[in-house]
Amino acid sequence: MKVELYNYIRAAQKMNRRQMLKGTAAVGAMAMMPKGAAMADGHGNVRADILKIPGVGMGTPTDSDYQKVGAMCLEGTKANVAEGEFEGVELTFMGLNNQNQHNFIFRGFLRAWEDYTGAKINWIDLAQADYNARLQQSIATGTVDFDIIEMGAPFEGDVLGKGLASEMPDWVKEQIDMDDYVDYLKAPVGTWDGKTYRVSIDGDTHTFAYRKDYFGADSITGQEVPTTWPEVNQITKDLVGKEDPLTGLPAHGYLDPLKGWGGFGFYFLENRAAPYAKHPDDPAWLFDPDTMKPRVNNPAFVQAIQDVMDLIEAGAYPTDQINADPGTTAFQQFLAGTGGMISWWGDVGASARTSDTSVVGDVVGFSINPGSEKVWNTAAGQWDEMPNVAPNNAYIGWGVYVMATVEGDEKKKKAAWSVAAHLGGKDISLWASAYPTGFQPYRNSHFQYEEWEEAGYDRAFVEDYLGSNADSYNHPNAAVEPRIPGIFQYYSVAEDELAKGYAGQYGSAQETADAIAAAWEKITDQIGRASQIALYKASLGL
After folding, report:
1. Which of 130, 172, 441, 451 has the fewest C-beta atoms lying within 10 Å of its C-beta?
2. Is residue 37 part of a domain?
C-alpha cells in the first residue's frame, strides 16, 4: 500500500477494512501499469496542458474552455483530413442537453474541427427523459433524420440489429486507439455480426458516493460507511429528525429517485436489486435465458422495491421526493448538500470539485455499490445466505455512432466519422473524464493518477474515485445489462409501474413487481420471443 493512501485512511478514519483492501487492490493494479504510460505516445504535453483548463477549483468550465480543449486536440483530425476537405458538407447530430453538458460540450469541442474542415453541424438536443421515445419513433417510422447520434450500447440491438448504422472505417480505429478501452467496453460492445460501429466516449458504472462527515466515530451517525443495503436502509431511517452537519438543514441518508427518467431511472432500482438478484453462479439476472420470463418479480427485486417503500413510509426522504428524478438526486440534492449517500454514474465524482454548484467536494468519498447478505438462487428457488456484491454497470456508456444515412456519399461519410473520431480521441477523453461533461473514465490511460494530480485533484480523492470505478468495471460478478432490442421499452414501463407502487396505487411490493413482469412479457411477445431469447443468450455469452 502507498504510504500516502495509508495515512489518508488512518487520518480520515472513514474506511472499513474491506474498503481499505479495495483501495489497495486498485492502487496495486494501477501500479502495474508503466509509469507515464499515458504519456508515452508523444501527447504528454497536450494532456497536461488541457487538464489545466480551467483547473480544479477554478469553477465550472465554460464554452470557451471547451473550444480551447477541442482546438488543442485536433492533431488526429489533421493527420487524416486536409484543411477545408469537407467544405459544403452539413451533418445533423442528435444527442442530449442534460445539465448543459453532452451536446453543449460537443459544440465547443467541434468548433475548431468545423473551422478546419469546412463542415457545418446542425444539432438535435434532447432531454434525457425524451431520448428513448425520440429514437424509437425514428426507428419505427423509418425517418432517421440525423447522421450522427450520441447513443448508449443498450440501444445497439434496436439500431445496429436493424442495419441503421455505418460500419467504422479502419482509419478511425487507429485514430482513437481502441485498444486503450477498459476490457468491458471492447467487443462485443459496439459491434454487431462481427462489425464495429461505436466510438466510445464514456464508460458507465454506478458507484456509491457518500458524505465523509456523515460517517466515523465523531460524525452525525457515529457509524462506519455502510457496505450492505440493509445497513444503508437502517442508517437512512436513523437520520430522520437530525441536522445536516454541513448545511444545517434536515439530514437525510440514501437518496432514491422516485420519479421516472425516460427509462434511465430503472437503473437506480437495479442498484438495490443487483446484489440480491445477480448470483455469482448465474450470468442472468433480468430474464430467464431459456424463456425470457422476467425475473423482475422474483424475491430479489421484490426485496429491493420493499426497501424503498419502507423508507417512504418512514418519512426518510426529502420532501416531495416522489417528484425527484435521478438528475434531481445527483445535482440538486447530493452535490448541493442534501443527503449523505447516493449511487450514481461518474458525473458525481467529476463534478464534486469542478462544478460551481457543488458544496460537498471536500467531504465526498466513493466506493463500490453496497452488497447484500443473501442472494436469490433462481435454479434452487431459494435464498442463499452468503455475502454478495454485484456492482451495476449501468448503460455501458455513451458512444458516438454514424448512421447509414451517410452511405453513398463518401465525403459526408468521412466527415461524420471524423466527428466521431475527434470526440472519442484519447486526449480529449481524459479532459472529459476529469471535468463535468456527463462522461466518466473508460480508458486504461484514464487511470494515471499523476495526470489528475497535475489538474489539481489531490491524490487521495483520485485514488478513491478512480478506484471505485475500476473495482466496479472489473468485478467478477458485475451486473451488466443485455444489448437486446427494446431494452428501454422494458425499463420505461418498469418506471411507470414503480411510480404507481411508490404512490400507493398497488397493494404491495410484490403486486408492483408482478405488474412490471406482466408488462415485460407483453413487450417480449411484441418483439418476438424466439429472437429475444437468441439475442439475450448471445449477450450473456451462452
Report:
1. 130
2. no
* Residues sharing a CB contact under 8 Å with residue 236, sequence separation 6 or more, in sequence order: 252, 253, 254, 311, 314, 316, 341
Which residues, at least 6 apart from 370, have a Cβ–Cβ distance to it below 8 Å?
208, 226, 227, 228, 229, 231, 232, 275
462-490: pLDDT as tens digits: 999 999 999 999 999 999 988 999 999 99
Q: Coil, strand or helix: which one is 176?
A: helix
Pairing of strands 198-200, 207-211: unpaired
Retrieve residue 506's grid coordinates.
398497488
Contact 455, 56 (CB under 8 A): yes
Q: What residue type is assigned to position 401 of the chain?
A: Y
Q: Do 407 and 283 share a domain, yes or no?
A: no
- Residue 542 to residue 538: CA distance in whole angstroms: 6
> What CATH number has the domain bearing residue 173?
3.40.190.10
CA distance 303 to 273: 7
Asked if residue 224 lies in contact with residue 325, where contact means CB atoms within 8 angstroms, the answer is: no
Q: Residue 2's pLDDT band (boundaries 50, 70, 90)?
A: very low
Identify the helix (H) or strand (E) that includes residue 273: helix 266-277
Whether residues 212 and 313 fall in one domain: yes
182 and 148 housed in the same domain = yes
Instruction: Determine if residue 55 is left, alpha or beta; phi over 0 gives left, psi from -120 to 50 gives alpha, anything else beta.
Output: left
Q: Residues 88, 57: contact at Cβ < 8 Å?
A: no
Measure the CA–CA gap between 58 and 210, rounded to whole angstroms. 23
Indicate if 238 and 196 belong to the same structural domain: no
Candidates 139, 175, 209; CA nearest to 422 is: 175
| CA dihedral over 417, 418, 423, 427, signed as positive or negative | positive
Grid cell listed for 308: 424503498
d(CA 538, CA 131): 26
- Of 32-46, 175-189, 451-465, 498-512, where does mean pLDDT reach its minimum? 32-46
Which ranges of 378-508 would DSSP assign to H, the alpha helix? 410-423, 426-434, 449-455, 459-473, 487-502
Nearest to 435 by CA among 43, 47, 56: 56
What whole-number distance in Å separates Cα of residue 192 and Cα of residue 342? Answer: 34
Phi, psi dihedrals of residue 364, rounded to the nearest 5°: -95, 140
The boundaries of the domain holding residue 409 are 58-200+398-439
pTM, rounded to two decimals? 0.86
CA distance 204 to 152: 9
In the chain, count H helices and then E strands.
Answer: 21, 14
Quick: pLDDT tens for 348-361: 998 999 999 999 99
Give which of 257, 204, 263, 269 is closest to 480, Cα–Cα.
204
364 & 408 share domain: no
Question: What total of structural domains would you count in the chain?
Answer: 2
- Whether residue 462 lies inside any domain: the answer is no
CA 177 to CA 508: how far, in whole Å? Answer: 50
Q: Supply the Cα-derived Rg of the chain in whole angstroms.
A: 23
Burial class (CB in 10 A: 0-12, 13-18, 19+), 458: middle
Q: 377 and 312 in one domain? A: yes
Instruction: Check if the beta carbon of residue 364 is closer than 8 Å to that of residue 210.
Output: yes
